[in-house]
Design goal:
By secondary structure, this protein is an alpha/beta fold. The protein has a 7-stranded parallel β-sheet with strand order 4-3-2-1-5-7-10, sandwiched between helices. It has a 6-stranded mixed β-sheet with strand order 12-11-17-22-26-27, with helices on both faces. A hairpin with a 4-residue loop joins β18 and β19 (320-321).
């Protein structure tokens, strides 16, 4: 049969396709801005037909009725990255969280988390009978490859992306045509403090570097401060509108990359419709599976690589908590550790953890003597390289505990330094001021 015949024979209603899911099945859901909202809504509407179905997903940005109270006997969400939409469900016991490095998720789908079904979103087939996963290849590619049944929402508003994002129509079991706008993530507003963090991070980025950063205020602030740089490259698990703007400005051209020279490589994007139009059929932007993009050995192929991530709090020894506030899970491991380790392995690599020095209107310090009770250590103190706040840069790699503590106190909010100094002097039985002026603190670039 021709690809057209195969495609037409597999076009069905959402109800007909979803009936193929059985009780006790494990079902992967598409990720972030490629979440197949229509299929999920129909699944919830048909809830009485399902019992004990496990739904596996990372970041959800859409409607999360599938994990609301009252549906426990029908569905159970197992999230790999807690977001604003699922935070309370996890905290209240209506959903589960599985901690795992982002790079390892595809492997889980053929080992510890084998899939019965996958619900994804794709483009309409092109002239060669191929559909694209569009804005999210990440773990979605592995879900399609490993699930017993693959159900795809065909959305003509999904951009057709290049790289490893395509499948032949014969690799998809059921197609449900439904046009709908993609989820968009607006560009965040930047506070003066966040803008200063961006300036401080930009001091560690040089012409010709290849960078990784995520989404949110701090990454956007960093990008806004790179406009005077030249020949920047991109190797990142995801990017948003700020990267697109620097490409248009000529700052990002990937010309100095030694790995995938001339190409931006990523695994998913989140942003505005303008960003989605930018990646559509763009041969300079290649999408790969997350086990490739986030593999530390692959990351390390980039000379002069700079990784930029954020966190919740840092203790005086350099332990970084990025995913929980005390016992409350608020995000996940994601790719932070993948990129921190990949940057260290790279020739002339730099790993930055950036954060505002305080939270809750300057009432809570994010540089603390010890992490809050229950807080999860995401990046070990042995892996941490640079910590950046609006007050400066602390270089921790290869430094003693006293040196680390002193450097971190120097970039803490002034309102909390006295308290931190007291802890330093109690813990190390020496004067903070004398140690700070001593030869022991000289091996610092800042």
């Amino acid at each position: 049969m021709s690809w057209e015949q195969i495609y037409n024979s597999r076009k069905v209603s959402a109800q007909e396709a979803l009936c193929k899911i059985k009780d006790n099945d494990r079902v992967a859901l598409g990720h972030a801005c490629a979440e197949p909202e229509y299929l999920i809504q129909e699944l919830v509407r048909m809830k009485d037909q399902f019992h004990n179905v496990e739904l596996v997903q990372m970041l959800s940005l859409g409607n999360v009725d599938h994990c609301k109270p009252g549906l426990e006997e029908h569905f159970r969400l197992n999230t790999i990255f807690v977001g604003g939409n699922t935070m309370e469900a996890v905290a209240e016991g209506n959903a589960d969280f599985t901690p795992v490095h982002f790079s390892e998720v595809p492997k889980l789908f053929c080992t510890e988390l084998p899939l019965d079904a996958a619900l994804v979103m794709v483009t309409p087939p092109d002239e060669n009978g191929k559909v694209s996963l569009g804005v999210s290849v990440d773990y979605t590619k592995a879900a399609v490859e490993n699930a017993r049944i693959v159900i795809a929402q065909v959305n003509d508003q999904m951009p057709f992306t290049m790289g490893e994002s395509t499948f032949d129509v014969e690799e998809i079991d059921y197609f449900v045509e439904k046009s709908s706008p993609l989820i968009e993530v607006p560009v965040p507003k930047l506070s003066p403090q966040v803008r200063q963090i961006g300036k401080n991070c930009a001091r560690l980025v040089h012409d010709g570097d290849t960078i990784q950063l995520g989404i949110g205020a701090i990454p956007n602030a960093v990008l806004a401060c790179l406009k005077d740089k030249k020949n920047i490259g991109i190797h990142t698990e995801m990017f948003s509108d700020g990267v697109m703007e620097l490409v248009k400005a000529g700052v990002i051209n990937n010309s100095k990359k030694v790995f995938h020279r001339g190409k931006m490589i990523t695994s998913f994007v989140m942003g505005t419709r303008e960003l989605y139009d930018f990646v559509n059929r763009n041969e300079d932007v290649l999408f790969f599976s997350i086990d490739y993009i986030n593999n530390p050995w692959i990351i390390a192929q980039n000379d002069h690589f700079v990784s930029i991530n954020s966190c919740v709090e840092v203790d005086l020894t350099g332990q970084v908590a990025s995913e929980s506030i005390g016992f409350k899970q608020i995000s996940g491991v994601g790719g932070q550790v993948d990129f921190v380790r990949g940057a260290f392995m790279a020739e002339n690599g730099t790993a930055i953890i950036a954060m505002q020095s305080t939270a809750n209107d300057d009432t809570i310090s994010k540089i603390v003597p010890v992490l809050n009770k229950g807080a999860t250590v995401t990046t070990n103190r042995t892996d941490v390289d640079y910590i950046v706040t609006e007050y400066g840069i602390a270089h921790l790699k290869g430094r003693t505990l006293k040196q680390r503590a002193c450097a971190l106190i120097d970039i803490a909010h002034p309102a909390f330094r006295e308290e931190l100094i007291k802890e330093f002097e109690k813990r190390y039985s020496c004067s903070y001021e004398e140690f700070r002026k001593s030869a022991a603190m000289r091996p610092s670039n800042f």
